[in-house]
């Protein structure tokens, strides 16, 4: 099938939504297959800290990844 996906970046300390991609179409020919999807992220990160990068498919949460952003040196 064809599915609309997007990624949100959320600041863990505040729960604030920092960035959201546009919607990207992912096509799955086989429901048991794995598809590699690449998203271009150009957010402005407001501060060092922890952020979750959250994947949504058809507006349903699928998975997330916790990322630590370190202060600039």
What are the key terms here?
single chain, mainly beta, 0% helix
Count all strands and give the number.
5
Radius of gyration: 14 Å
**What is the averaged pLDDT score?**
92
Number of helices: 0
User: What's the shape?
Assistant: elongated
Distance between the termini: 46 Å
Largest β sheet strand count, sense and barrel closure = 5 strands, antiparallel
Amount of beta strand? over 45%
Poorly predicted runs of 5 or more residues = none
N-to-C order of helices and strands: EEEEE
Structural class, from secondary structure content?
mainly beta
- Helix amount, in percent? under 10%
Short description:
The protein has no helices and 5 strands. With 73 residues, it is an all-beta fold. Strands 1, 2, 3, 4 and 5 form a 5-stranded antiparallel sheet that branches.
Please give a structural write-up.
This protein is an all-beta fold and 73 residues long. The protein is 0% helix and 51% strand. The chain is built from no helices and 5 strands. It has strands at 2-11, 17-20, 24-27, 49-57, 60-69. It starts with a strand and ends with a strand. The mean pLDDT is 92.
């Amino acid at each position: 099938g064809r599915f609309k996906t997007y990624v949100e970046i959320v600041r863990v300390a505040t729960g604030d939504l920092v960035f959201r991609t546009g919607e990207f179409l992912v096509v799955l020919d086989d429901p048991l297959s794995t598809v590699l999807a690449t998203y271009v992220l150009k957010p402005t990160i407001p501060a060092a800290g922890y952020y979750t990068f959250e994947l949504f498919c058809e507006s349903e949460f699928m998975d997330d990844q916790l990322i630590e952003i370190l202060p600039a040196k």
